[in-house]
Amino acid sequence: MINRDSHACIADFGLLMIVPDRASFISTISCLEGGTIRWMSPELLDPGRFGLEDSRPTKESDSYALGMVVYEVLSRRAPFAGDNHAIAIQKIMNGERPGRPRGRRGAWFTDALWEMLELCWKPQPHDRPSLKALIQCLEDTMPPTSTTNKDVVTGADDSTVTNHGTFQFHLGPSYRASG
User: Fold this and answer.
1) Which domains does the chain have, with CATH numbers?
2) Which of 40, 111, 19, 109 has its CA nearest to residue 71?
3) Which CA distances in Å does 146 have to 27, 149, 167?
4) How far apart are CA 167 and CA 128, in angstroms?
5) DSSP label of 87
6) Closest-CA residue to 21 (of 98, 79, 78, 105)
7) CA-based angle 171:105:25, to the nearest 5?
8) Which of 158, 155, 161 is nearest to 174 (CA)?
9) pLDDT surpassing 60 at residue 29
């Protein structure tokens, strides 16, 4: 979603659809329940393996997906970019995660940020950090782009928008309350 100021906004990981860039084509497929395979947590791909009856998105699956989105944005590579969908699913279910980029692509991945991403990608949902913790880590990691390092605004719906450098995060009331 793009807002009025032409900023990309991320919302509803369960319904996330990626439109492929023809220049660097990596097709995406969606599950019948919604979602894009490469960004989906293991429990959404195979709920029965985790003792769940259905693949319903949760804050923990959102944490996993946001970790993948952060990886993609900062590395400029989709998760499991070199693999077809079947291999990507197999890797996710076997606990494999994207490798830490090196060189120019890895410049943004400080040790603290990489550790946080690894926590987001933990196989067990209850072991993952809150979205608030991930955003705090990003805020602590990203270099300031102006004299104002962080600007937090509370909206009419009691949501919080945090501007930090080139990133803007929006946490609705339910995420802020539960951390």
Assistant:
1) 13-143 (1.10.510.10)
2) 109
3) 37, 6, 13
4) 22
5) H
6) 78
7) 80
8) 158
9) no
- When pLDDT is cut at 50, 70 and 90, the band that residue 80 belongs to is very high
Q: What are the backbone angles phi and psi of residue 30, rounded to the nearest 5°?
A: -115, 150
pLDDT one-digit tens code per residue, 43-53: 999 999 999 99
Backbone φ and ψ for 83, nearest 5 degrees, come out as -110, 150
Report yes or no: 70 and 115 within 8 Å, Cβ to Cβ: no
Contact (CB, 8 A) for 72 and 61: no
State which amino acid sits at residue 133. A
The two structure tokens encoding residue 62: 């959102």
Listed in sequence order, the residues at least 6 apart from 2 whose beta carbon sits closer than 8 Å to its beta carbon are 8, 9
The whole-number pLDDT of residue 2 equals 55
